[in-house]
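Side project, low priority. Logging it here so it doesn't get lost.
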Amino acid sequence: MNAPPEPRPARLTVGVVGAGRVGPALAASLQLAGHRPVAVSGVSDASVRRAAALLPDVPLVPPAQVLERAELVLLTVPDDALPGLVEGLAETGAVRPGQLLVHTSGRYGTKVLDPARRAGALPLALHPAMTFTGTAVDVQRLAGCSFGVTAPDELRLAAEALVIEMGGEPEWIEEEARPLYHAALALGANHLVTLVAQSMELLRTAGVAAPDRMLGPLLGAALDNALRSGDAALTGPVARGDAGTVAAHIAELRKHAPGTVAGYLAMARTTADRALAHGLLKPELAEDLLGVLAEGDQG
């Protein structure tokens, strides 16, 4: 006899409050898993276009009506807007007992949902550790994506099931650790974009016709090495203690792109500290290097 099929989680009606880059993609992913998007709210023209592209035929309605129609509601609004939204929905009686209320903020755990929990909602914090484009490619990128998950003990299985259904991997984050967790992601991902964009601008200034093609293999290898080896992957003039090269860098940046100097100096100091601590930078070379960086501050 064939074994009975594995039980599947209940199919849910899904609503999205805030049709930014994240919400429609997550709802589309849940739809692929068998859930049914029934309502979405959005104000800007871009939000309306995203909802139409990723959730065709799903009606655009005010937030209160999203909660009225959906058993699972994704609150995908900016971090600073989330507390006020939750309080407003709870105060107006829009929250229904037994309703799954999910926010996707990295900064907050489930305490921000306390007003809705007091109204009977079931609170979950599911933060996908990924940058979103607001297009269908995001749904594909969710495969294997880690989610920072915070949930009451009785809802841990439900949270895990939803993340897995979206193709993700749940990573449990304690409530008090959420701000640190989010700062770590921002430090790596957001600042990386700034560094890469600055690097491409400087290469164009230096006459490189295709800076993206030049940087792709280099940055890909650097990222892979860093993920595998941490500080042992440090290379370059700062880690080697080449004070003269670093001085030349600072002079050129000050001449061609003065807005990049402060960031270069800050990252060079941090790199030097880490290289010194891990025995990659010789102490006798570090003194000259740090002197050059101090002079760069005054330049």
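Brief comment: The chain has a mean pLDDT of 94.
Revisit when time allows.
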